[in-house]
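Quick one, T. Sequence first:
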Amino acid sequence: MKIGFIGLGEMGKWMAINIVKAGFPLTVYDIQPDPVRVLVEQGASSVENPSEVARKSDCVLMSLPDTQVVEEVVFRENGLIDGASPDSLIVDLSTIYYSATLRIEEKLRARGVIFIDAPVSGMEARAKEATLTVMAGGDPIAVEKIRPVLNAIGNNIVYMGKSGNGQLAKLVNQLLFNISAAALAEILPMAVKLGLDPEGVCRVVTTGTGRTFALEFFTPYILQNDFKTGYPLIKAYKDMISAAEISSQEKIPLPVFAAAMQTYQLALAQGMGDENKGAMIKVWEKVLGVEVRRRSS
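Structure tokens:
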């Protein structure tokens, strides 16, 4: 099977490299020349636009920043739709809006093109190690057809059901992560305000029953005042918007999510959009007049 890959960013570059290493013929495209050069050095070929990727591939994978970019790559002039043949496959590894996924799938199905939503979870380190979790939604026969490709990028490939279910599963995962990040932003400043040592309390909550991945990931950076490492708040905000949209449309109350959204929006309003989710702690540090940082010896 000839594979195409569009989007060679932080995650996409490593996924594409692992697909090459798995022995698949690979054609790549990205607006940035440097990662394209890296993939060509690894054995991939490159082209000038998405439509050429589609023409040279049986299956095209995308790893792109957001819904708008995905729709542009698929439907704009010289987009995938211009080069895709009937029964070809387009697999979206990006995290985008659930409603947009359904819309894209419907439009492509009308053209005879199969669309699979397969967002990934695991951050850059696991992309590099090919140990991502992949949540696939769409035609089950098509998912099985591309499973060898997905196995090249992840070690936990979970079929979630109909089109859109991959994005829904990813959203559930992200909401639990985001809520946990908002919770630590609120609770750790309280602990320090009451006199607990920042390093000590962080050690307790990352080894006790209250530990979460958010605590384990962000507390080391918080303690050393590093809010640049990791995915920026403004880009991750799409998950919160998507959940709010679904909650409204489906009339599903999400009170804990709604509270977390307030912390998220306060952080964005205070100019922390380019910082990681751990930066939300600065909202409540400011309110309480404390800092959760490693103390000088």
